[in-house]
Design goal:
The complex is a heterodimer. Chain A has 12 helices and no strands. By secondary structure, chain A is mainly α. Chain A folds into 2 domains: 215 residues, no CATH class; 46 residues. Chain A is elongated and about 140 Å long. Chain B contains 15 helices and 2 strands. At the A-B interface, helix 2, helix 9 and helix 10 of A face helix 5, helix 11, helix 12 and helix 15 of B.
Chain lengths: 334, 375
């Protein structure tokens, strides 16, 4: 058992500490992220999943992300919110790494945690490794993915593939095949590089553990010790503080939350609906009656005018006929 | 210490506060303290774990879905004439209506994700094995209820996406032998989705399914208490004994942190991608390519394969395959009788789980690429 602990691989050490510390810190960091989103400080656009991973793994990405943004002109989200969230993550990560690190040293390595600043000691190592390693990982995985996509496209268009079906490979099959090819290659490269990065961190933690002195207590004593490390001395004070912080954050959230949708999409804007005026029956009836009376008067006037016009025409016609008759009689006179 | 404070005379003079008297009043009538002891003093072999939080999180999400759903119902009108307009009204005119609708929408997705995470945890921990077979089967029924919740809720906004997803979904159900035609006719209430369909989906969504979920969740909890927690699959007897703890306070604390994290995550998703409606439902899809909710995309993409074309292929893909998978899950505790729970000593189980997860991920991404291709 003791040999197992001595022989624990750097990858296992690095992964165990990072994985637990990331999950320990994420609930607090998520609250900061939501408040930043509520204030409109950050819009993650289509890269929400990537943004989550960055905030989740902030012990390693805290300085790497600005470098990736500067070097590769990549955007993870609009606004100044992401640097703020990453900045606020630093104390959270130091606390989480310290808590997890002390537990790991006691329970898994059976060693006394080196000193009080264990959290900071692990954090700066993780941040430093991440600063150099993540931009490299980003560059390599992006390039490999590009090449793999191009290669999978070419493979799907090969003559032998075309011959499988009369019209070439059907769309769904083609997408599935190409995705499997380039997805496998990219994932494999990503996993290998991530393991290398975690292993480097694990190695530096193992060096810290080598100089730490072994603990003397039995297993039950150890469990009690690391368990009590997680229980605050004054539980009432902690619960009151947590409730207070929760209430303050809730009030901040609701006071800053936009009443109407903060970013209505261009594709689906609110339909332009014309509001009908309020129906007032009495006013409507009286105005209708007035309108009917006006229209009736207009119709009456028009009819009178029409009759007058017809009369005038008939009179004019009779006059003309009378004149024609006079003329014809004058012409027929010898 | 001052001896005056600890004297028997002072203790007997202690007057109970209003809260203490209220607790005593309730305890005398409903057995409050006994109930509290039963609920909180459940021993957890191996101690509290983050892996055990999913059940509590699911209950929390359901409670929040019920709350936001009730608030939405104050404004939503379940008629074919007004469903779309009333949803638009919620999004654009009701104060924080966009956020409530977004929370309800993403809450349903979170519920599906947490159900799958919970099922995965039970599967990987081997917690479906004897004596927890019934617990597993009731859990599968709850999974079915959650999926049906998503399916029935998807129609309610009555836009093109809702209309066509329901049309496709009901057509898939129609392919079930013997009962398919009846189910399709019952759900649609006519030849095409219309008022009758909306009414039926609404009643199922707000009355039948919540009642079913509450009943099944109660049964699930009861069976869980009877069978007791399975505990971790690794560790020596000494380690397990040293770490064994009660449900309160550590597991409750973990559950609460888990709930808070899920709540914050759903808020973030509602802020990131608020719900937007497409055009009002119409029998002509126009430029819209029908597709289901994101957690069904992998299955939708699977059905696009040439293998599942034609009458027989459609039957195989739409009915035989999912039914066979569900039957396999139901029969799992009776097929796998090996008491070994360590997932690293159950290679078939581990490989199967990884294969299913990779398959779901691969086909979901393929479906998104296919959508971009169609657009």
């Amino acid at each position: 058992m003791a040999e197992d602990r001595e022989a624990m691989s750097p990858t296992k050490i690095g992964f165990s500490i990072l994985w637990a510390a990331c999950w320990t810190g994420i609930p607090i960091k998520a609250v900061f992220a939501v408040l930043a989103m509520t204030m409109g400080l950050v819009h993650f656009e289509g890269r929400f999943g990537l943004a989550f991973l960055i905030v989740f793994a902030s012990p390693m990405t805290v300085f790497a992300v600005p470098i990736i943004i500067a070097m590769f002109e990549t955007q993870f989200g609009e606004g100044i919110g992401l640097p703020i969230i990453l900045g606020m993550s630093i104390p959270v990560d130091i606390w989480a790494l310290g808590l997890v690190g002390r537990t790991f040293f006691l329970e898994r390595l059976r060693k006394e945690p080196p000193h009080d600043g264990l959290g900071f000691a692990i954090w700066w190592r993780a941040a430093l490794i991440g600063t150099f390693f993540f931009p490299l990982l980003w560059c390599i995985v992006s390039r490999v993915t590009e090449i793999a996509i191009a290669a999978s496209h070419s493979m799907a268009e090969m003559e032998s593939m075309r011959q499988l079906f009369d019209t070439g490979l059907p769309i769904a099959e083609r997408i599935g095949l190409e995705l499997t090819i380039w997805g496998s290659i990219s994932s494999a490269v990503l996993i290998v590089l991530a393991v290398i990065g975690i292993s480097i961190l694990g190695q530096s933690i193992r060096r810290m553990a080598e100089i730490a002195r072994p603990v003397s207590a039995n297993y039950q004593g150890l469990i009690t010790r690391w368990d009590l490390m997680r229980v605050p001395t004054d539980q009432g004070l902690m619960l009151t503080s947590l409730t207070g912080v929760g209430v303050v954050f809730s009030l901040m959230f609701w006071s800053m939350l936009p009443v109407t949708t903060p970013h209505p999409h261009e594709c689906c804007k609110r339909p332009d609906v014309r509001v009908e005026p309020v129906f007032k029956p009495v006013e409507s009836l009286s105005s209708s009656a007035q309108r009917i009376a006006t229209l009736a008067a207009q119709i009456g006037a028009m009819e009178q005018q029409k009759v007058a016009t017809i009369d005038q025409k008939e009179k004019g016609k009779g006059k003309a006929e009378g004149e024609t008759a006079k003329d014809s009689s004058a012409k027929t006179k010898p | 210490m001052d001896s005056k404070h600890s004297s028997p005379a002072t203790i007997s003079d202690h007057q109970p506060s209003t809260i203490e008297r209220l607790v005593a009043f309730l305890d005398e009538r409903v057995g409050l303290k006994e109930m509290q002891a039963k609920m909180l003093n459940e021993p957890l072999p191996g101690g509290s774990r983050w892996a055990y939080v999913f059940g509590s999180i699911l209950l929390f999400i359901f409670a929040m879905q019920a709350l936001t759903g009730t608030l939405l119902m104050f404004y939503y009108v379940p008629t074919a004439d007004h469903a779309w307009a009333s949803t638009q009204y919620i999004i654009h005119d009701v104060d924080y209506g966009w956020f409530l609708l977004g929370y309800h929408f993403w809450g349903s997705s979170a519920m599906v994700v947490c159900v799958i995470a919970h099922m995965s945890q039970v599967f990987l921990w081997g917690a479906y094995k004897k004596p927890r077979e019934l617990l597993w089967i009731v859990g599968l029924a709850l999974f079915g209820v959650v999926i049906t919740f998503g399916f029935t809720g998807y129609l309610l906004p009555w836009d093109q996406r809702a209309f066509w997803a329901t049309t496709v979904g009901v057509e898939i159900l129609d392919k079930t032998p013997v009962i398919g035609d009846f189910i399709a006719r019952f759900l649609k209430g006519g030849p095409t989705p219309g008022q009758m369909t909306l009414s039926r989906f609404f009643v199922l969504h707000v009355m039948v399914l919540p009642a079913a979920l509450m009943a099944l969740a109660g049964l699930h909890l009861f069976l869980f208490r009877v069978a007791a927690p399975a505990g971790p699959f690794t560790g020596t007897v000494e380690e397990l004994k040293a770490k064994t703890d009660y449900f309160f306070p550590r597991q409750i604390w973990k559950d609460m942190v888990g709930m808070a994290f899920v709540f914050v995550s759903i808020c973030a998703l509602a802020l990131w991608e608020p719900v937007v409606l497409l055009d009002e439902a119409a029998p002509d899809p126009g430029d819209y390519h029908p597709e289901p909710e994101w957690y069904f995309l992998f299955y939708f993409q699977l059905l696009r394969l040439k293998l599942f074309a034609g009458e027989f292929g459609q039957f195989m893909g739409a009915v035989a395959l999912p039914v066979a998978f569900m039957v396999l899950l139901v029969a799992l505790p009776f097929i796998d009788k090996d008491p070994e729970r360590n997932i690293f000593k159950r290679p078939i189980a581990l490989i199967s789980w990884i294969a299913i997860m990779v398959f779901i991920l691969l086909f979901t991404v393929a479906s998104v690429i296919n959508r971009e291709f169609l657009d």
